[in-house]
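Office hours follow-up: a student asked to see two folded examples consecutively, so here they are.
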Amino acid sequence: MSEADLLRAVVARAGREGWTTATLRHALEDRGEGAELASSHFPRGVAGAIDSWFALVDAEMEAAAAAEDLAALRTPARIRRLIELRLIALEPDREALRGAVALLALPWNLPTALRCAARSASAIWYAAGDESADFSWYTRRATLMAVQGAVLAFWLRPNPPTLEETLSFLDRRLSELPKPHPKAA
């Protein structure tokens, strides 16, 4: 069984049962592996499993983006489309995502939460064609992390909005960002 298949099995269970060590063990048992292998597959425990899942979602978003002609779009439209692709990838597992976000919000999981958010922001910017290597590399990612956090909070509300409503919310957040100044001649 591939790591991606195992992660999908864990996520499916986590959506129903929550993110626990027992969920990791049950997912392994479902796949015909011994529950005692949970610590081998996920040495950092549940937070590590969530980290691996988010990395898988990043890879799926990048693969979906590679199949599209994003170069024809302006940068804000590329960012919007990439966030949309992430939401589409996460839609079937919204309950698992809600639980993952809640677990990563605990103080001792902050390093994992920041790593996941930073990796996702970088994946989006690289897929959008960003080649910056100066201070803007950091500011773009920090800004995108804030926008993504707001979009996820909106999308994970108790009365979940549709994808169109979420994208409208995203459009409003993107329109509020400062515009870059033209370079001096």
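And the second, which I mentioned at the end of office hours:
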Amino acid sequence: MTSDGLRNFIANGGRLRFKPFVGDDDKLFWEMHGIGPDGEEQPVYEGRTGEVRVVKSTRGIVGYWRIYHPEDLEVPVPVLPDGAGKL
């Protein structure tokens, strides 16, 4: 799925999910994924570059969540377990 189709995906019952990972610079980032009504998960690709959309801050996650899930009063921000990655 591309970021251009995200609004329609959400309108048809999809949800966002952010998957944490540690970047080469030892910072925590999140890949944006969509979860369809059937439970299938797929990455969201940047329409211009074809790369998986990466969110670089919790503020970014909150911003996307408020755009695509404005009815929600809480935002899930996943973290890595202790010792995972290079943090």
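Two things to take away from it. Residues 3-68 form one domain. The two ends are 30 Å apart (CA to CA).
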